[in-house]
Amino acid sequence: MIEFKTIESESTFLDPRKEFSPATVRFQVRVDPLTGRTCHFSHFGAIKPQKLDLPAYLSPEVKGFCPFCGQHREKATPKFTPDIVPEGRLTRGEALLIPNLFPYDIHSGVVIMTDDHVVGLQGFTKDRLLDSFSLGIDFLRRIADADTSLPYHLMTWNYMPPSGGGLVHPHQQYFATAFPGNQFMDELAAARRFYARHGQNYWRTLIEREREGSKRYIGRTGRGHWLVPFTCLGMLGDILCIFPDVFSIHDLSEEHIEGLVAGLEKVFRFYREAGVFSFNASLSLGPADQGYFSSCFRIVPRTFLNMRDFAPDLNFFQAILSEPICVVLPEDLCKDVKPYFE
Ligand SMILES: [Zn+2]
User: Fold this and answer.
1) Low-confidence residues in the chain, pLDDT < 70
2) Mean pLDDT, rounded, of the chain
């Protein structure tokens, strides 16, 4: 039912590093078993995540004005209209929910995760993560009830400048939309076709299949299953957490959030050891009244290619060809992450 298709190939040239003797370099193209989209795997091991100087982000000339820092929050951040959040803003622990000053859709919130302006991965304590996710997901539930015309719900997170995040101060976006992006819609349509053809939820079938083979299955925390996908979106490889029994925002319980946070703490421990300082992450939630598109959390490391000219890790492949290119094989990434889940 699920086909993992790899096209292996190689390129030969005369290598100036070896007195122009022939050298052969292998690469792969993989076809995503759900969407049919391709992904290049090449340049293996050539790109390493770069270390960020976190304390430097606190120096006044770099920091500039931060609307999320304590004394500015009250004056510089917006408030919700009373029909959505009568209190204007919501808090839970250190987390503060505000509307996005640059909204992505009709209902668009931001969770400021911490009081501190600069937080390294070790600073994301269980409480900070639980409070932020719970607050944001409560907001998604609230807007799902208030406006049923926007069927898809998303948490998105840019962490640190290589990820494209405009503010260093930790924050996540939560919004409802009818247009959750091409990747999301491709996966949704393909999962619907898979269900029509096989009568099964693709994601549940994938988990069973990957657990047997175990080359990309990382482990389980609560009701979430962690694995490395067969094709990745990021250059350094993705990690997914699939919740097979969650389809829409209405199915997501506190127990799921606890499982997500428990696994994320392990991923962060791995990232700290691996030197990852930045990432993009998302939690996608499908429309109500369907049982074929499970909720997925995806995290993708990001880095500058070097700290000399800050070349980004995205290039013509992603910007123009819409083709991911990855320098790590998913099976190798899984082998590295798995010990943190045992
Ligand atoms: Zn700040």
Assistant:
1) none
2) 96
Total number of domains in the chain: 1
Q: What is the CATH number of the domain that holds 145?
A: 3.30.428.10
- Ligand 1 centroid to residue 55 C-alpha, Å: 13
Query: Which residues, chain by chain, have CB under 5 Å from ion ligand 1?
Result: 66, 68-69, 117, 169
Distance from the CA of 67 to the center of ligand 1, in angstroms? 6
Burial 105-114 (b: 16+ CB within 10 A, else e): bebbbbbbbb
Decide: pTM greater than 0.90: yes
29 lies in a domain? no
pLDDT digits (tens, 9 = 90+) for 291-333: 999 999 999 999 999 999 999 999 999 999 999 999 999 999 9
In a domain, 15, yes or no: no
Segments forming the whole domain that contains residue 170: 50-310+329-342
Q: Tokens 């505000």 correspond to what residue?
A: 98
Burial of 8 (0-12, 13-18, 19+ CB in 10 A): exposed
284 CA from centroid of ligand 1 (Å): 27
